[in-house]
Specification:
This protein is α+β, with helices and mostly antiparallel strands. It has helices at residues 2-20, 55-61, 121-137, 174-192, 197-205, and strands at 32-38, 68-74, 84-91, 98-107, 111-119, 151-159, 162-169. A seven-stranded antiparallel β-sheet has the order 1-7-6-2-3-4-5, with helices on both faces.
Length: 210
């Protein structure tokens, strides 16, 4: 009887591990929130549906949704990546080109350090496409692990008439890869004042290659 019980326990634990280690964009990721909704607000004072936007996100990039938004939110603020930072892609006011806008939260007085770069249509559309893929293919599998420290990543994008939102604590798989690309973009912009579009475009094209 004891052998049977022990065997059942081992098989049960093995089943959990196998389920937890299946291929997918959420293997080993922590807590997450995923939402798809109409982009235009049906009620309320705002044009866009910004229910998923925190006060900090609204302060960074206003009360509108954009084709691409990414936010890096460290849990334990310290070291080189201690600042909450955001990135967005949008058309310029004349609708002639895309801009990559960055904001870094540098104090509790709602002070932000801003940077902006003109980017090609190819880069903007590729980043938009890859973010759609990361959100759309994201799956919860197995048992969420306990994670101490690290950061949360927020992806938000507009798809036709919808706004898609994904927040992950401790991203993994392709959500981690896209997070690292966005974080590298922000790091190089703030610490080296440069944006190497060709380099980032290559990294993006390697994510979900066609």
């Amino acid at each position: 009887m004891k052998r049977i019980l022990l065997t059942l326990i081992i098989v049960s634990k093995l089943s959990i591990i196998l389920a937890y280690c299946q291929d997918g964009d959420k293997v080993n990721a922590g807590d997450f929130s995923l939402k798809k909704a109409y982009n235009l607000a049906i009620t309320g004072p705002y044009l866009h549906n910004i229910e998923s936007k925190s006060d900090l996100e609204r302060q960074m990039f206003s009360i509108f949704n954009y084709p691409v938004e990414f936010y890096y939110l460290p849990v334990n603020e310290g070291g080189i990546r201690k600042y909450k930072t955001g990135l967005r892609i949008m058309r310029d006011s004349t609708d002639r080109f895309y801009t990559l806008d960055l904001k870094r939260h540098i104090s509790d007085d709602v002070d932000f350090e801003s940077k902006s770069f003109i980017v090609s249509d190819l880069f903007a559309l590729t980043l938009h496409k890859k973010m759609i893929s990361v959100i759309d293919k994201f799956k919860a599998k197995g048992i969420p692990p306990l994670i101490n420290g690290g950061y949360s990543a927020i992806f938000r994008t507009i798809v036709d008439d919808e706004v898609w939102y994904l927040k992950i604590y401790g991203p993994y798989g392709n959500s981690l890869k896209l997070s690292e690309i966005c974080i590298e973009i922000m790091d190089n912009a703030y610490y080296h004042n440069k944006f190497d579009e060709a380099h980032y475009l290559k990294l993006l094209q390697e994510l979900y290659p066609e």
